[in-house]
Amino acid sequence: MKTFPDNFLWGGAVAANQVEGAYQEEGKGLSTSDVQSQGIFGPVTERVAGDSGIKDIAIDFYHRYPEDIKLFAGMGFSCLRVSIAWTRIFPNGDEQQPNEAGLAFYDRLFDELAAHDITPMVTLSHYEMPWGLVNQYGGWGSRQTIGFFERYARAVLARYKEKVKLWLTFNEINMSLHAPMTGVGLPETSSKSEVYQAIHHQLVASALVVRACHEIIPDARIGNMLLGGLMYPLTCKPEDVLEALQQNRAWQFFGDVQCRGSYPGYMLRFFRDNGIQIDITDADREALKSTVDYISFSYYMTGCATADDALNQQLRGNILSMVPNPHLASSEWGWQIDPLGLRTLLNVLWDRYQKPLFIVENGLGAKDKPDADGVVQDDYRISYLNDHLVQVREAIDDGVEVMGYTSWGPIDLVSASKAEMSKRYGFIYVDRDDSGKGTLARSRKKSFWWYKEVIATNGESL
Ligand code: BG6
């Protein structure tokens, strides 16, 4: 019978800037997320305390985490993926010493998880960095940022070495090509050389932190995190097949460097063909040799690639400019739903790297409405997650090594792309709307009970 391994980790994933709130408490500095109140694609805006930017409070996880963790434990979670807000530890990014109050907060959080036997998985930078580093140094455009990131990472690795054994460096590192979270603008506003130089700095920083983690916590595992943007050729025309290969390489390149330890030949050609000049030192090349222990990725959708320029202009739609697949339905936000694509992606990654895989995000953003009894009957979410998990089980049966699955947003949170509350992913409903109104009370949706059963049976109920 097809099964999940006995030690398979089940749980959910959240990010500091999308749940914590408390954006200026206990010495926290402003992050890039704090100044992008309209989401990761939005403009930088001045923040004024109490101006009701939705992320100022988010879902108030900073104060309510004991209640939330109890609810997660009620579903039987064995793993919770969280991120550390870099600005709680180094408020401006360039301080010599960490902020003790920020460190103490995550101690309390990890202790609470331990009390419920939930393994923490920690992302060091989830779509945010200190605004001070962007303002004063140019963010990842500056080589100095590598040192600031390593200092921050070493501080938290040393502090939590007994409490955290699963780490991730940058969330969806390949999104640096599409959104200006790195302090370097979009390709429209920065040159390709500037964008790839900033990415190079991040890749070197990631590798240096992999090395630091191996030194500081020898029994820990540290991985990368990719947005798994699997592309299919729109047709079987050879030109479309080649175009899909190239578009897949646009994200696989990050995995290739982080898993294999050097720049692949196709990327060097891409740089040559596009007149991209980047500064790669011998020390950088040496640093990149520290490769990750496992690969984590998010999976929401697939897209199609075509070499036909006219079709591209006409059809390219969602955030990654994918051409829609005529065979798939879409979510309310236009994200195409493709459970089988998850099995394919798991196999592609396994065949390419032969490293353990962890699905650290997957889920359906939907407009939930509580019924007359106050319960969200989210059968659509159950069906989405069920279909995806069935394909994970198929991939395991194909021989792929999968460490675990953390669904995105097990509790409703602020969306990353548009900073809205109405795009809900949770098993737990949070009473707060897009304008910030609501009691912040938590309640269980129908999917809460479904996921509890999945975990209790280690996937046999699927
Ligand atoms: C991933 C991010 O891209 O997708 C999360 O790592 C994000 O931070 C998630 O929330 C879903 O995207 P959105 O825009 O629906 O929140």
Question: In words, what does this structure look like?
Answer:
The protein has 462 residues and is α/β, with parallel strands linked by helices. The protein has one domain (9-456): Glycosidases (TIM Barrel, Alpha-Beta Barrel), CATH 3.20.20. The protein is built from 15 helices and 12 strands. It has an 8-stranded parallel barrel, surrounded by 5 helices. Strands 6-8 form a two-stranded parallel ribbon. Helix 3 packs parallel to helix 5, helix 7 runs parallel beside helix 8 and helix 13 runs parallel beside helix 14. The relative contact order is 0.14. The structure holds 6-O-phosphono-beta-D-glucopyranose. 6-O-phosphono-beta-D-glucopyranose (BG6) binds at residues 15, 18, 127, 171-172, 227, 298, 361, 365, 408, 415-417, 423.
Note the topology:
Blueprint: E1 9-13, H1 16-19, H2 54-57, H3 61-74, E2 79-83, H4 86-89, H5 100-115, E3 119-125, H6 131-137, H7 144-159, E4 166-170, H8 192-216, E5 221-227, E6 231-233, H9 238-260, H10 265-273, H11 282-287, E7 294-298, E8 303-305, H12 309-315, H13 339-353, E9 357-361, H14 379-397, E10 402-408, E11 428-430, E12 442-444, H15 446-456
Parallel strand pairs: 1-2, 1-10, 2-3, 3-4, 4-5, 5-7, 6-8, 7-9, 9-10
Antiparallel strand pairs: 11-12
Helix pairs in contact: 3-5, 7-8, 13-14
The protein binds 6-O-phosphono-beta-D-glucopyranose.
Residues 15, 18, 127, 171-172, 227, 298, 361, 365, 408, 415-417, 423 line the site of 6-O-phosphono-beta-D-glucopyranose (BG6).
